[in-house]
Amino acid sequence: MVWHGMGPEDGRPVILIHGLFSNAFTNWVRYGHAAKLAAKGRRVIMPDLRAHGESAKPHDASGYSPDILADDNLALIEQLGLLPGGYDLGGYSLGGRTTARMLVRGARPGKALLAGMGLEGLLDLGGRVGFFRKVLEGVGTHAKFSPEWMAEGFLKTTKGDPRALLLLLDNFPRIPRAALADLDVPILVLTGSEDKDNGSARALAEALPNAAYGEVPGNHMSAVTLPELGDAMAAWFQSDF
After folding, report:
1. How high is the mean pLDDT of the chain?
2. pTM, full prediction
3. Which residues contact residue 81 at a Cβ distance below 8 angstroms, ignoring those fewer than 6 apart?
4. Can you tell me the distance from the alpha carbon of 94 to that of 70, in angstroms, rounded to the nearest whole number?
5. What pLDDT, in 10s, does the model give residues 103-149?
6. Going by fewer Cβ within 10 Å, which terminus of the chain is more open, N or C?
């Protein structure tokens, strides 16, 4: 898995995981979010998920497994030699979901961020996976200005690979609600004020034992482009360190 870095080499590491159809540059660099963390002395580590960005995009099912995104990122933590409590972790949309899977699997950052994610987006994937499958299977056929057409347009800007992404869609395991009660790491659930794409972010914060809830302007697509998201991230990860 390819990852990108920003900020001082000796800064406290924070791993940021991008969303579906996106990549590290689009989510974290283009709109200045990573730079805000780097300016506060943080070492920002931004992987390109499998089937995204500069990372591998296998066209065979053997290149994927049921929890491959969590597996890849847990391996990155081990590869970098990051110790429990010695780094922070967060993500947007699918990146938030991957962060939650990593926490369930035993990742122990000092702090975590679940952005662009709601309770239903962790517990029940059916509707969202179905939507993205429709986008990928119907590339070039979607009605102009439809949600599918808009999603395909974003996919084109990030040079996404529909064949690889379709295979990845089969490997998003659900998170049992009971598992959320065990996630005692301090977590910020951060969402756009108009973002309902992955369900209720407020309900997700309430389901976690040690979570704060925050809102920034925008919907699921626009919130990640606005400076308030980076400001909120920098404030969260900088506090108490």
Report:
1. 96
2. 0.96
3. none
4. 11
5. 999 999 999 999 999 999 999 876 789 999 999 999 999 999 999 99
6. C
Whether residue 137 contacts residue 151, with contact meaning beta carbons closer than 8 Å, is answered with no
- The whole-angstrom separation of Cα 49 and Cα 121 is 19
Element spanning 44, H or E: strand 43-47
d(CA 172, CA 191): 21
Task: Give the pair of three-digit tokens for residue 106.
Answer: 């035993």
Sheet containing 211-216: which strands, arranged edge to edge?
3-6, 43-47, 13-17, 88-92, 112-115, 187-192, 211-216
> Could you give the CA distance from residue 168 to residue 173 in angstroms, rounded to a whole number?
11
How many Å apart are CA 192 and CA 213, to the nearest integer? 11
Strands 112-115 and 43-47, by their bridges, are unpaired
Q: Provide the residue type at 85 as one letter.
A: G
3-state helix, strand, coil in the chain (%, to 5): 40, 15, 45
Token representation of residue 47: 């992987």
Nearest Cα to Cα of residue 99 among 237, 241, 235: 237
CB atoms within 10 A of CB 203: 14
